[in-house]
Amino acid sequence: MTFQELGLEPMLLKAVTEMGFENPTPIQEQTIPQLQGKSTDMVALAQTGTGKTAAFGLPLLTKLDLNSRFTQSLILAPTRELCVQISKDLINYSKFLNGLRVTAVYGGAPIMGQIRDIKAGSQVVVATPGRLIDLIERKAIDLSHVDVVVLDEADEMLNMGFKDDLDQILSNTPPTKNTWLFSATMPREVERIASKYMESPLEISVGKKNSGNENIQHIYYTVNQRDRYAALKRIADFYPDIFGIVFCRTKAETQDVADQLIKDGYNADALHGDLSQAQRDLVMKRFRSHTLQMLVATDVAARGIDVNNVTHVINYNLPEEAENYTHRSGRTGRAGKTGIAIAIVTPREVNKIRDIERIIQNTFTKADVPDGVAVCEKQLFNLVHKLHTVEVKDEEIENYLPKIYEELKDLSKEELIKRFISEEFNRFYAYYQNSQDLNIGNDGGSNGKTTRFFINMGQLDGFNRNSIKDFLAEVSSLNPRFIFNVDVKNSFSFFETENKCVDEFLALNKKGIEFNARVISFEVSKAKPSGGYGEKRSYGGGSREDGRRSYGGGERKSYGGGSREGGERKSYGGGERKSYGGGESRSYSGGGERRSSFGGSREGGERKPFNREGGNGGGERRSFDKPSGERSFSGNREGAERRKRFTK
Ligand code: AMP
Questions:
Q1: Contact 586, 637 (CB under 8 A)
Q2: Ligand 1: which atom is nearest the Cα of residue 308?
Q3: For 379-399, what is each residue's pLDDT tens digit?
Q4: Whose CA is nearest to atom 14 of ligand 1?
Q5: Whose CA is closest to atom 18 on ligand 1?
Q6: DSSP state of 274
Q7: In this structure, which of 55, 118, 148, 328 has its CB flanked by the most CB atoms within 10 Å?
C-alpha cells in the first residue's frame, strides 16, 4: 500500500515523500482513509514510534480551513517536548500548503508570547492540558470553532494527573467536534473518556491490543538492591557504543545516578523536572546530536522524546506503574530499528516483570549481568575494531612518525599489537579482574549469606539511614555497599552485612569506638536477616527511603551536625576531617579525560549522598581516626555544584 493508494492529498503526499516516508505505517494505513475528509470519533491503540503523529496529523490538515484564522484543531499532549515535536511534524507535513499556523503552548515558557501567537490566528494549537486550562481561564483562546480534538498519549496525560483538566477541556469544546484519542494502553480511565465524550468511535489498534513493539528485545537482570548501580555500569561497559536512556523513578535518583556516572567517567547527563528549561534543552540537544551517550531521565521528563537510533532503554528501577514500561521501552526500536530494553530488578521485583509481560504481551528474557571476563572481552574487541575505523590524521602525525618508528624499531608487529592493546586493556582488566558476580537467583537472593547487627545508636544521635551507613563504612573501612537494610530506630539501629564482613564489625568492639562519649557496641542480632536484597519496600510503595531519596533533601544534614545541636557531637565529625566533600576523591580511572566506558571506577557507587563544604560540623574529633583515604566521599565538586543548582 502506498500513500497515494490511500488517497492522501497531493500536497501532503509531496511533503511526506520529501520527508523520506516511502510507505504508510500500519496505523497510517488505517487512519488516513478513515479520517481524511470524514467526520468521526476515533480511539486508536498505538505506541509511540508507530507513526501515529502522521496518522492523525495528515488527516487533520485536510480538515482545516486555512483561510480562516480561528482555532479549528486542538491537540493535547502530555509534555512540552511532545507538543514541540508534533508542531514541527505538522509544519513539515504542510510544507506545500499555504497559510497554516501552528502554535505549541506548554508550561514553563512565557504565556504572553503563546497568547500572542494564538491570537495571530493559529488554526492548530498543540497544548499540554495544564497550560490550555490556563489559557481558557484567561479567556485567551476561543475554542468555539474547534472541529477536531486530538488526545495524544491519553494514558500518559491521565497518569500525570490531567484527568480533571481533560474533562474541563473536552466540555469546553463544541459538542459537534470529533475527538481522536491515541493511547499506548487502555486503562479504565481512558475508556471512560472514550465512552463519555465520543460517539461510536472508530476503533483502531495496531498490532494486538496493548502489544509491545516487536523490534524491542526485553531483558531483565536480577541483582541485589545495592548492586543496581554496579549492574548499570556493567551494561554500559558491555555495550561500549551504547546510545541509551536510563530511567529512574525519582528526580533525586535520576540526578544521583547521572552524577555517579559522570564521576565514573561516563558520558552521561540527567534530565528531570528540577532542571531549568534551558538546562533541559541543552541536555536534549546533546542527546539528539549523539554528543551525549547516556541520558538518565525520569518518566515525565523523557516523555515525548523522539530520538531515533536509541540502542538501549535501561530501567534502573521499574516504573511505579507497570504500564509506563511501554512508554519507556518505546523510546528504542523506533522507525523499524531494533532495540534492547533492560530492566534491573531485585528478586522481589520479578513479579512486576510478570505484570509487565502481560501488558506488553511479550516475554522478557532473564539474562545474566555480564561478568568481568565478558566485559573485558567486549571492550578488547571493540578496541581492536576501532583500530580499523579510527581516523588517521596523516598530516598532523607525520612529523612525529620518524621518531616513533625509531623508538619502536626493535618490536615485531605481534609485539607492537600486544603492547598497544595492553595499554588500554590493562586498565579495565585491573578493574574487572576481581569483580564479583552481580547476579542472584530469583529464590530470595542471598539468603543466609548476610548477618544482621544491632548497634546502640540511632536517631537520637542524629543519624539517619544514610549517615549511619556512612558512619559504619568509615569505622569499619568497608565499602558502604556491604552495609544494607539499615533500620534506624530512636536509640538503636540494625543493619545487615555480608557474612564475610562480620569480623570487621566484631573487631570494632575491641577497639572501643566512641560516639557522643558512649562506646558503640556491635552485636549480632538474633532477628532473621531479610535476605540481603535491599530495601524493605520495593515496588510502588509509598515514599522512598532508600539511600538515594534524601539527596539534596533536608534530612541529609545530620551527619556530624545538622539538626542536632552541634555542640554535643564532639566525638565525631571533627574539623580536620578531609574526606567529606573534599578534594581527594574520584578519578579512579587515573585517566582524567576518559569520556566513556571504563571510567574504571570501582563498583558499587561509594559515592556518598552528601557533599558538604568543609568538615562535618564542629568539634574536635576524638574517637576514631580513620579517614580511609581509599574511599571517596564524593569529593566531586562539580557534581556537588551541579546538584546544588538542580535541587534548589
Ligand atoms: P511517531 O510514532 O509519530 O512518534 O513516529 C515515529 C518516527 O517514525 C518518527 O521519526 C517519524 O518521522 C517516522 N515515521 C512516521 N511515519 C513514517 C513513515 N510512513 N515512513 C517512515 N517513517 C515514518
A1: no
A2: 10
A3: 888 888 888 888 889 999 999
A4: 51
A5: 21
A6: T
A7: 55
| 333-351 mean pLDDT | 86
Choose which residue among 306, 327, 329, 332 to substitute to test ligand 1 binding: the one with the highest number of ligand atoms within 8 A of its C-beta.
Answer: 306
- Which residue, judged by its Cα, is nearest atom 11 of ligand 1? 51
Query: 10-205: which CATH number, 3.90.226.10, 3.30.1490.20, 3.30.56.70, 3.40.50.300?
Result: 3.40.50.300
Whether 563 has a pLDDT exceeding 60, the answer reads: no
- Which SS3 state, helix, strand or coil, does residue 129 take? helix
Helices (DSSP H) in 411-458: which residue ranges?
Answer: 413-432
**Which protein residue has the closest C-alpha to ligand 1 atom 20?**
21
Residue nearest to atom 6 of ligand 1 (CA): 49
In the numeric block, the cell 470553532 is attached to: 145
Dihedral, CA atoms, 243, 263, 272, 562, nearest 10 degrees? 160
How far is it, in rounded angstroms, from Cα 526 to Cα 505? 16
**What is the whole-number distance in angstroms between the Cα of residue 46 and the centre of ligand 1?**
12
- Look at the domain 450-524 and name its fold: Alpha-Beta Plaits (3.30.70)
CATH 3.40.50.300: which residues of the chain?
10-205, 216-369
**What's the CA gap between 363 and 381, in Å, rounded?**
31
Q: How far is the CA of 335 from the centre of ligand 1 (A)?
A: 6
* Distance from C-alpha of 558 to C-alpha of 44, rounded to nearest angstrom: 52
Rounded to whole angstroms, how far apart are CA atoms 411 and 515? Answer: 60
For 240, half-sphere exposure in the C-beta direction (CA atoms, 13 angstrom radius) is 19
In tens, the pLDDT along 132-150 reads: 999 999 999 999 999 999 9
For residue 336, the CA-to-ligand 1 centroid distance in Å is 9
Q: State the architecture of 216-369 in CATH terms.
A: 3-Layer(aba) Sandwich (3.40)
Protein residues with CB under 6 Å of any ligand 1 atom: 21, 24-25, 28, 48-54, 306, 308, 334-335
